[in-house]
């Protein structure tokens, strides 16, 4: 196992009165390393914190931001909760589906993009909120979609 | 936040044109003076000010902060360490005020955390920060770094002999973790499923130790209370609703955004004078006054004061202060469906009425929307809501049932029309038409048969 990850997890665990509290930060670190949480990543986190891989999987599967399946290099998340939906989130989502050629919930065949809808992101007054690689863009309108995708593709 | 000279601002008063994320600028406007003042007082005396301020929690439940703090054992009365936990897991649909406080007033929030920790005698505080708030995490991390370097946080805070460690714990995407006991479970490294109460966190919170949990805005208010004194703070606002609140205004309104106003301000003033009214000459149809968990108000009820008691008289709640405005293009069945889908997605699965009930609500609402429901199924929907209410460990189930039941109660004819006409009377023209929710996405196999729009 990568000793760097092991050491980083120990440093985090030391911040808490109980080491188990480090499970979520450790999963985040592992996911940053692997891009998602493959069985190897869960095993590494488990070993570093003296829990089972199954425990790590149980925790990870509870939270939306942990990915137990591979995701694209770029993550595009469109909020379709009430406030954003009232101002056109569905049209923004369909814009991305059309631009990327995939449905919400899917990853493009080249592994570049994952598109998904998310619940309220917390930018409701500036909807539609779109999280692009974990940075919020707000407001995004259907006419902004092409430029965002082009930017992520490298501006070609 | 849009500035407005006419509004009474206590939190954002000095934020316009200044970068209060920087310690030096925050100190120029009196930042951390309240901490110095508090450290010169007895713990009990600071608590007295919080009690006198009568400040009610800004997270949703509205419990008086001072009283909550007074429930904790005093240091020395308990063998366990005492902890403060800041609930920065803002995720009630429509709410984005804590995010702006974190992003623009991080030091005011930290100062509140430090003072509140001092009041209860905690040596460790945890900030449970919503996982999606990455930019806000970075701002908070930098602010804490500055505060530590200046001796405001850490060993021997400002030479007082009292130590305080602050740890920022990032969530990972789960609405339920905003519920205090689920948050504690998550902080302990578990799935975020609520605990049964009692014991309350004041007695047995994180690591089975006495814990005070407060919302970001509540904690950010603490320095102002210490500065003014509780009695003077309590003069702002109205009876039973002291002070100001930061309202998150969204939906079909011209100027969406966060607005700090005195409690007791008229909802009409927030929507029309401050928010600029409804765009495109449309008519107001309904307003959700406190986040998607609370019952709806009709256009006729817009003249209601934004305070705890006035909202209760209307059968609804101030909740998290999220005001969602809907114009006349919004189908209330679709609104119910989208709201129910949210709670179905976010139900932790622990209590059967919530886990199964939210699924039933979605299924029945879908049938009503599609014009396939029988008359009896509308009654069934209300029956399901009724069987969720009060039957779960935490308020999430209620938060699904209450608003949906209110949509039926206040817009029954619209639900009836769907049944009578065998379909949606908006004929695809509703603002919420065909909105894809995350729960739909989980059934990707079904969706893969649908053509990608050209």
Q: Strand sequence of the main sheet of chain B, in spatial order?
A: 8-7-11-9-10
The largest chain-to-chain contact, stated as pair and per-chain residue counts, equals: A-B, 55 and 72 residues
Shape of chain B: globular
Secondary-structure content class of chain A: alpha+beta
Q: Mean pLDDT of chain A, as a whole number?
A: 96
Taking pLDDT < 50 over at least 5 consecutive residues as the criterion, the unreliable ranges of chain B are 444-448
Strand content of chain B: 5-15%
Q: What report would you give on this structure?
A:
Chain A has 156 residues and is α+β, with helices and mostly antiparallel strands. Chain A has helices at residues 3-13, 23-34, 39-49, 53-62, 82-86, 89-100, 145-152, and strands at residues 74-79, 106-107, 113-118, 130-132, 135-137. In chain A, strand 4 and strand 5 (135-137) form a beta hairpin. The longest helix of chain A has 12 residues, at 23-34. Chain B is an alpha/beta fold and 454 residues long. In chain B, the strands form 3 sheets. A 5-stranded mixed β-sheet of chain B has the order 8-7-11-9-10, covered by helices on one side. Chain B has a 4-stranded parallel β-sheet with strand order 3-2-1-4, sandwiched between helices. Chain B has a two-stranded antiparallel ribbon with strand order 5-6. Chain B starts with 22 loop residues before the first helix and ends in a 7-residue tail after the last helix. At the A-B interface, helix 2, helix 4, helix 5, helix 6 and strand 3 of A face strand 3, strand 7, strand 11, helix 13 and helix 18 of B.
């Amino acid at each position: 196992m990568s000793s760097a990850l092991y050491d980083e997890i120990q440093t985090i665990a030391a911040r808490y009165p109980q080491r188990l509290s480090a499970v979520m930060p450790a999963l985040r670190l592992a996911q940053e390393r692997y891009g998602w949480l493959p069985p190897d990543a869960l095993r590494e986190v488990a070993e570093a914190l003296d829990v089972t891989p199954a425990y790590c999987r149980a925790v990870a599967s509870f939270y939306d931001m942990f990915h137990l399946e591979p995701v694209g290099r770029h993550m595009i998340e469109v909020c379709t909760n009430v406030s954003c939906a009232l101002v056109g989130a569905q049209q923004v989502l369909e814009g991305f589906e059309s631009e990327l050629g995939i449905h919400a919930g899917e990853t493009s065949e080249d592994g570049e993009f994952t598109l998904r809808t998310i619940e309220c992101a917390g930018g409701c007054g500036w909807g539609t909120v779109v999280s692009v690689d974990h940075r919020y863009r707000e407001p995004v309108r259907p006419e902004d979609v092409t430029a965002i995708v082009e930017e992520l593709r490298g501006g070609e | 936040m849009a500035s407005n000279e006419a509004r009474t601002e206590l939190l954002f008063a000095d934020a316009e044109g200044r970068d209060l994320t920087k310690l030096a600028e925050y100190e120029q406007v009196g930042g951390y003076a309240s901490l110095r003042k508090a450290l010169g007082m007895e713990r009990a005396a600071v608590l007295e000010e919080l009690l006198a301020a009568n400040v009610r929690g800004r997270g949703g439940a509205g419990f008086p902060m001072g009283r909550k703090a007074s429930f904790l054992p005093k240091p020395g009365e308990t063998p366990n360490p005492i902890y403060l936990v800041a609930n920065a897991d803002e995720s009630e649909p429509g709410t984005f005020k804590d995010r702006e406080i974190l992003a623009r007033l991080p030091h005011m929030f930290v100062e509140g955390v430090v003072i509140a920790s001092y009041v209860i005698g905690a040596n460790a505080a945890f900030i449970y920060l919503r996982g999606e708030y990455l930019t806000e995490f970075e701002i908070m991390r930098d602010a804490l770094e500055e505060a530590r370097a200046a001796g405001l946080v850490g060993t021997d805070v400002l030479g007082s002999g009292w130590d305080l460690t602050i740890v920022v714990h990032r969530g990972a995407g789960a609405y339920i973790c905003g519920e205090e006991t689920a948050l504690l479970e998550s902080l302990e490294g578990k799935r975020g499923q609520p605990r049964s109460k009692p014991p309350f966190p004041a007695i047995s919170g994180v690591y089975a130790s006495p814990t005070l949990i407060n919302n970001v805005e509540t904690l950010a208010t603490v320095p102002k209370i210490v500065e003014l004194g509780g009695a003077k703070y309590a003069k702002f606002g109205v009876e039973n609703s002291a002070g100001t609140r930061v309202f998150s205004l969204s939906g079909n309104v011209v100027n969406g955004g966060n607005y700090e106003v005195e409690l007791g301000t008229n909802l009409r003033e927030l929507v029309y004078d401050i928010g600029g009214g409804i765009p495109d000459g449309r008519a107001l149809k309904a307003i959700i006054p406190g986040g998607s968990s609370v019952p709806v108000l009709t256009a006729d009820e817009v003249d209601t004061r934004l305070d705890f008691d006035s909202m209760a008289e209307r059968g609804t709640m101030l909740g998290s202060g999220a005001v969602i405005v809907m114009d006349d293009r919004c189908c209330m069945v679709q609104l119910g469906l989208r709201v129910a889908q949210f709670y179905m997605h976010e139900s932790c699965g622990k209590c059967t009425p919530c886990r199964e009930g939210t699924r039933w609500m979605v299924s029945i609402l879908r049938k009503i929307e599609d014009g396939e429901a029988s008359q009896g199924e509308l009654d069934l929907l209300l029956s399901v809501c009724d069987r969720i209410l009060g039957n779960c460990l935490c308020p999430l189930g209620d938060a699904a049932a209450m608003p949906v039941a209110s949509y039926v109660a206040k817009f029954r004819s619209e639900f009836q029309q769907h049944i009578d006409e065998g379909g949606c009377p908006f004929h695809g023209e509703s603002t919420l038409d065909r909105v894809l929710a995350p729960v739909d996405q989980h059934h990707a196999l079904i969706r893969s048969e649908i053509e990608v729009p050209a």
